């Protein structure tokens, strides 16, 4: 009976993970889904964003020969402003997604995420993560916008 209970507990823990996924990958996947995909995109829940993104997070993109930096504080402020607007449409930012790559090495991780809107691939995002004493945080993003 004891062996059966232990086996049952092990199997229930494994069922939470995607096939072949480690515990670290599962933690990062959960963070992507909660803080990024649902926090920043589908529900625009700034509390989830603030919990999952490091305070020094930034989106990096090219600006001519320079690199533009979009801070998390500015992103959160923009969402708050949009949500307070009388013209706010909660469906405007809804996306479907695919996490096509997820790599974890110790306390560092990266993910490739495809964002799809109205059946069309709109962004390929590359997210970086760092594991701190209080858990994983999204540290940075670079992306490609599909035309």
UniProtKB/TrEMBL annotation:
The keyword Protease does not apply. Residues 1-19 form the signal peptide. Keywords: Signal. Pfam families: Lumazine_bd_2. It comes from the Bacteria. The keyword Signal applies. This is Nuclear transport factor 2 family protein. It comes from Acanthopleuribacter pedis.
């Amino acid at each position: 009976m004891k062996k059966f209970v232990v086996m049952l507990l092990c199997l229930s823990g494994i069922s939470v993970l995607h096939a072949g996924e480690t515990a670290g990958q599962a933690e990062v996947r959960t963070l992507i889904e909660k803080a990024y995909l649902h926090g920043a995109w589908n529900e625009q829940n700034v509390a989830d964003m603030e919990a999952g993104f490091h305070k020094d997070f930034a989106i990096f993109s090219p600006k001519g020969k320079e690199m533009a930096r979009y801070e998390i504080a500015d992103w959160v402020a923009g969402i708050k402003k949009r949500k307070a607007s009388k013209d706010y449409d909660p469906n405007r930012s809804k996306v479907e997604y695919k996490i096509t790559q997820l790599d974890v090495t110790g306390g560092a991780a990266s993910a490739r995420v495809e964002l799809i809107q109205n059946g069309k691939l709109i962004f390929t995002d590359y997210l970086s993560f760092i594991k701190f004493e209080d858990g994983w945080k999204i540290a940075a993003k670079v992306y490609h916008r599909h035309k």
